[in-house]
Specification:
The chain has three domains: 128 residues, Rossmann fold (3-Layer(aba) Sandwich), CATH 3.40.50; 209 residues, Dihydrodipicolinate Reductase, domain 2 (2-Layer Sandwich), CATH 3.30.360.10; 48 residues, no CATH class. Helix content is 33%, strand content 23%. It has 15 helices and 15 strands. A nine-stranded mixed β-sheet has the order 14-13-12-11-7-10-9-8-15. Helix 1 links the parallel strand 1 and strand 2.
Length: 429
C-alpha cells in the first residue's frame, strides 16, 4: 500500500473546508489530514467538531499561529495548505517551504509585488513546489474556450473584452469582511480578478506586458450611501436595529455555520464578519476598468463591478478568422454561508462562434458538477487524487500564480499613479 500523503492546513476560515472537507471525505485512502493552524482556537475547535460530526473523521491536533513551526516539526506534513487571510499567505508559504514542505495556496498567491518576489525567491532557494488553486481553469466551459482558441477556430486572437459581474449578495460580501481593507486583500483586482486574469493568460497562452487601470469606490461606503439620501447607518448587523430591514445586512445568528465560525469566535480575535457595506473604513474599489497589453500583442479590456443584479461574466474574443461570444451566469452565494458545491455553480452558459465567412453556431459544453462551474471536483482530484492526463495543462504553478496577481498589482499601481505599468519591472523570476 502506498504511503498516504500528509497535509496540514493553516487558516480555518471560509475557504478552508473546501480543502480539508475533501481530504476527510473523498481522499482518505491516499491522504491524511494531520493538523489545523489558526490565530483563533475557537474556530479550530469548530472545524474539528465538523470533522467529527459531518465527515466522521477523528479530530486533528490544533496549533495557534505562533506555533506554526512546532506544527511542521511535530506533524511532519508533506504539504501545507494555505487558506489564511491574503496578506499572510506569503508568510506561511515561505516558512513551510523553508521547513521542507510543498505548498498548496488558495488564490491569490499574495497581494503585492514585494511579497510576490519573496515567494519567487523562496521557491528558488528551497526547491520546493507551490500550487495555486485556480479552480475556474477546470470548469468545462472555460476549458472549452481554451480548446477553441488553441485549435485556431477564430485564428489569432487580437482582442478580448471581459466583463465580470458580482451581485448584491456575493459582491457585497467583500465589503462586509476583512477584504474591505486593501492592506488585507490587495483589493478586488488582486483578490477576485486573479481568477479572471489567470483565465486570460490560460486561454491565450501568454503573459501580461503592460497594464493601465481606473477605479474607485462608487456604490458601497458611507459617503456614497449618504449621497443617495441614506440617513440610517450601523457599524455591524448583529444587535443593530437599523440592520433589520437592510437587504445588504448579514445576520450571522440566523446561519448556524456562520454563527459558530465567526460570531461565537469573536471573543478571541475581535473579527466581525458582518460589518455594514455602507460603513466607514472601506479602502477597496467596487468599480474597475483595466486595459492590458499581452506579450503576444493581444489586448484586453476588462471591467469588474461589485453591485450588479446578477453574477457571472460576458467575454468576447476577436480574431483573424472570427469571433467567440461567451455568457456565463453563476449561482449567487455568501462565502461559507451554505453548500460549498453551490459556490460559483453555473446557472446558465452559452458559447457562440461567429466565423468571419460562415454561419454562426453554438458550441456544446459538457455539464460540470459542483462549485465554480464544475471545476472544483476536478481541481480537488488533481490536488489530492490521481491526476488525469491533461493536454490543457490546467495545474497552476507559482509562475501562473504570480502572473495572475501581477496584472492586478499593476492595476493597483496604475490606479494610484495614473500611469501605465510594465509588468516585467515588478518582479524578477
Amino acid at each position: 500500500m502506498t504511503q498516504r500523503k500528509r497535509y496540514a492546513l493553516v487558516g480555518t476560515g471560509g475557504r478552508a473546508e473546501f480543502f480539508w472537507g475533501s481530504l476527510a471525505r473523498d481522499y482518505r485512502e491516499t491522504s491524511e489530514l494531520v493538523a489545523f493552524c489558526d490565530i483563533n482556537q475557537i474556530r479550530m475547535n469548530y472545524s474539528n467538531k465538523l470533522l467529527q460530526e459531518k465527515y466522521d473523521h477523528p479530530p486533528v491536533p490544533t496549533y495557534t499561529a505562533d506555533r506554526f513551526d512546532d506544527m511542521i516539526r511535530e506533524q511532519k506534513p508533506d504539504y501545507v495548505i494555505v487558506t489564511s487571510i491574503d496578506r499572510t499567505h506569503h508568510t506561511y508559504i515561505i516558512r513551510a517551504m523553508e521547513l521542507g514542505c510543498d505548498v498548496i495556496s488558495e488564490k491569490p498567491m499574495t497581494i503585492d509585488e514585494e511579497k510576490c518576489q519573496e515567494i519567487l525567491d523562496a521557491v528558488k532557494r528551497t526547491g520546493r513546489k507551490l500550487r495555486v488553486t485556480f479552480n475556474y481553469r477546470y470548469a468545462p466551459h472555460n476549458s472549452k474556450i481554451r480548446e477553441l482558441i488553441r485549435d485556431g477556430v477564430i485564428g489569432e486572437v487580437y482582442s478580448v473584452h471581459f466583463e465580470w459581474l458580482l451581485n448584491t449578495q456575493h459582491g457585497a460580501d467583500y465589503f462586509r469582511r476583512w477584504h474591505r481593507d486593501k492592506r488585507n486583500s490587495g483589493g478586488l483586482l488582486v483578490h477576485k480578478s486573479t481568477h479572471h486574469f489567470d483565465l486570460v493568460n490560460f486561454w491565450l497562452g501568454t503573459q501580461p506586458k503592460k497594464v493601465f487601470a481606473l477605479g474607485g469606490l462608487r456604490f458601497y461606503g458611507r459617503e456614497n450611501a449618504e449621497r443617495r439620501g441614506e440617513t440610517k447607518f450601523y457599524q455591524r448587523a448583529h444587535g443593530s436595529e437599523n440592520a433589520k430591514n437592510d437587504p445588504f445586512a448579514l445576520h450571522l445568528e440566523e446561519n448556524p455555520h456562520l454563527k459558530s465560525m465567526y460570531l461565537d469566535a469573536e471573543s478571541e480575535d475581535g473579527y466581525q464578519r458582518d460589518q455594514s457595506v455602507f460603513g466607514d473604513g472601506i479602502s477597496i474599489e467596487d468599480t474597475m476598468g483595466v486595459l492590458v497589453e499581452y506579450k503576444n500583442k493581444a489586448i484586453l479590456t476588462y471591467s469588474l463591478n461589485a453591485y450588479l443584479p446578477w453574477e457571472g461574466f460576458n467575454v468576447v474574443f476577436n480574431g483573424s478568422k472570427g469571433r467567440i461570444e461567451v455568457k456565463v451566469v453563476e449561482q449567487s452565494y455568501i462565502n461559507s454561508g451554505g453548500d460549498k458545491a453551490l459556490e460559483g455553480a453555473v446557472v446558465g452558459k452559452t458559447i457562440n462562434v461567429f466565423p468571419m465567412f460562415g454561419e454562426p453556431y453554438n458550441v456544446p459544453i459538457e455539464e460540470g458538477v459542483g462549485g465554480h462551474g464544475g471545476g472544483d471536483p476536478i481541481l480537488l482530484n488533481d490536488l489530492f487524487g490521481t491526476p488525469i492526463d491533461d493536454p490543457l495543462n490546467r495545474a497552476a504553478s507559482h509562475i501562473d500564480g504570480a502572473m495572475s496577481i501581477l496584472t492586478g498589482i499593476a492595476g493597483n499601481i496604475s490606479m494610484r499613479t495614473g500611469q501605465p505599468v510594465l509588468v516585467d519591472q515588478l518582479v524578477k523570476f
